[in-house]
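Supplementary Text 2. Reproducibility record for the structural model of the 66-residue chain.

All settings were left at their defaults, and a single model was retained for analysis rather than an ensemble. We include the record here because the model underlies the residue-level annotations in Supplementary Table 4.
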Amino acid sequence: MKYVVYLLLVLAVASMVFNATRLDFSNLLVGNSQIALISIAAALCVTVLMVIMIISYKIQEKQKDL
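Retained model, structure tokens:
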């Protein structure tokens, strides 16, 4: 399960990078740029959630050692 979390984290970061190349900074909220901006926000949410999962796994491992 730990590898799935890391894989999702890498895919989310790759998605953010890919969608950042699609942004048109003169018209951020129009057309494909709007879709890319929403996708970057969604990938950022996934990144935060996966980091929380990684931290919770580390806490769980430390509690098992006690």
